[in-house]
TrEMBL record:
CDD domains: ASKHA_NBD_FGGY_RhaB-like (cd07771). Residues 259-448 form the Carbohydrate kinase FGGY C-terminal domain. It comes from Fusicatenibacter faecihominis. This is Rhamnulokinase. Keywords: ATP-binding, Disulfide bond, Kinase, Nucleotide-binding, Rhamnose metabolism, Transferase. Belongs to the FGGY kinase family.
């Protein structure tokens, strides 16, 4: 029997976060959730902020719970959503609370930046899908709308790096996270300072990039004193949660498509090199950084955020309802042909998602969805038909024949979503594991500690540790 290794993975999603304890022994991983908490952005005036200090408080609450277990925990790592950041002054203080990517200050900024640097040239370097909340556009908006904060900034830290800094005192930027911001050269895998200068932005706030599976440092003495946890290394993993999710996906085939289903749906393929063609630009695909130098060639699709907000609004206006209730109502719906475009801007951050889904269907000549099931079916159909469209585009852009779709993330607990994904893509769906991001996070920690060799060994361990369920398309 080999050594038993304990690690902690903090996985921050856009709506909730959790801390997971991992036990690795005899070639298998076991997971235990020690701490879970909501992630509730806050509107202050015209802006939409992350409740950053409460999230850090919750992180430390998790560390206290881990310390109480009195286990020889070797390391921890943090992954979060992409693009968002904190700005620090020369004394290391946070200046200006991090703004949520759904804030509307960046509306129209893509066109403004495109007049300075042609968008086709930006894509030819970065290979990143144009979305108004990408870091390059947020920084441009900060320069205009928060000039005092922008000018006083000494360093930019993305969200997982911010939490890592608060734990260790070490400032760093991690490659996979930085790649989400449309600030890196996709070929060199480093900051594109020429592009940053051309966009009129500062180059001195960015640090040297570290790769996943890099040991950052130890917990600060004050963190150890407060939490009771000691002897733990903080490791940079694929700190963008999708980078960790892909690393934690036991891909069925080298040409398989991954689909990480959570607040967002991230769908794509793992490639050796970026695709920066005019067609890729036209289809607006992204070339984000993956672990071990891979490229995550994918499309961002508005995901279960829509369903989460439908449930929230239904509970507010119609009465308490659970996700199993929504699934059951959808299966029993009289009409199952309603469909929305999940990428329509109206579904980004509305006050009433239920009203927006109904309005979309009416405005597009589909009639009025009645009841919870018909409204939910419009969302299910919209998401899974979009998955089918993306699969066809991926086959065209890569020249590969996709044999199956590997689904990971919390969305795979929804069997109806998995079934409709198989039906509307025409592909076999292999669902599992649920904890894709956590497992990718853990396996990169194990690599950093020398316990495993690489991501492929990690994927084999994951496949042997957790079940997968197959859903076949209809004949």
């Amino acid at each position: 029997m080999g050594e038993t290794i304990y690690n902690l993975a903090f996985d921050f999603g856009a709506s909730s976060g959790r801390m997971i304890l991992s036990k690795y022994a005899d070639g298998k991983i076991e997971l235990e959730e020690l701490h879970r908490f909501s992630n509730d952005p806050v509107r202050i005036g015209k802006n939409f902020y992350w409740d950053t200090f409460r999230l850090y408080h919750e992180l430390k609450q998790g560390l206290k719970k881990a310390a109480a277990r009195k286990l020889p925990i070797k390391s921890l790592a943090i992954d979060t959503w992409g693009v968002d950041y904190a700005l620090l002054d020369k004394d290391g203080n946070i200046i200006g609370n991090p703004i949520n990517y759904r804030d509307d200050r960046t509306i129209g900024v893509i066109d403004e930046v495109g007049k300075i640097v042609p968008l086709k040239e930006i894509y030819a370097s970065t290979g990143i899908q144009f979305m108004n909340f990408n870091t390059i556009f947020q920084l441009y908006a900060d320069k205009k709308m928060r000039p005092d904060i922008y000018e006083k900034a000494d360093r930019l830290l993305f969200m997982p790096e911010l939490f890592g800094y608060l734990l260790t005192g070490k400032k760093y930027n991690e490659y996979t996270m930085a790649s989400t911001g449309e600030l890196l050269n996709a070929k060199t895998r480093d900051w594109d300072f020429d592009l940053i200068k051309r966009a009129g932005l500062r180059t001195d706030i960015f640090g040297e990039l570290v790769q996943p599976a890099t040991i950052i440092g130890d917990l600060l003495p004050e963190v150890t004193e407060e939490t009771g946890l000691s002897g733990v290394k903080v490791i940079a993993v694929g700190s963008h949660d999708t980078a960790s999710a892909v690393a934690g996906t036991p891909l069925f085939d080298k040409d398989a498509v991954f689909l990480s289903c959570g607040t967002w749906s991230l769908m794509g393929m793992e490639l050796d090199e970026p695709i920066l063609t005019d067609e890729s630009f036209k289809y607006n695909y992204t070339n984000e950084g993956g672990v071990e130098g891979k490229i995550r060639y994918l499309k961002n699709i508005n995901g279960l955020w829509i369903m989460q907000n439908l449930r929230k609004n239904w509970c507010e206006f119609e009465g308490e309802v659970s996700f199993p209730d929504i699934i059951r109502a959808s299966r029993e719906a009289a009409r199952k042909d309603f469909v929305i475009d999940p990428n329509d801007p109206r579904f980004t951050a509305p006050y009433n998602m239920m009203k927006e889904v109904i309005g979309y269907c009416e405005e597009h000549g589909q009639g009025t969805p009645e009841g919870l099931g018909e409204i939910a079916m419009a969302i299910y159909n919209g998401l899974t038909q979009e998955y089918g469209k993306v699969v066809r585009e991926l086959e065209h852009l890569t020249g590969k024949n996709v044999p199956c779709i590997n689904m990971v993330g919390g969305g795979i607990q929804d069997k109806l979503l998995c079934e409709l994904t198989a039906k509307n893509t025409g592909k076999k769906v292999v669902a599992g594991p649920i904890e894709g991001s956590v497992l990718g996070n853990i396996t990169m920690q194990l690599k950093a500690l020398g316990a495993i060799k690489d991501r492929e060994e990690g994927r084999k361990i994951i496949s042997n540790s957790f079940p997968q369920e197959i859903h076949m398309p209809e004949a």
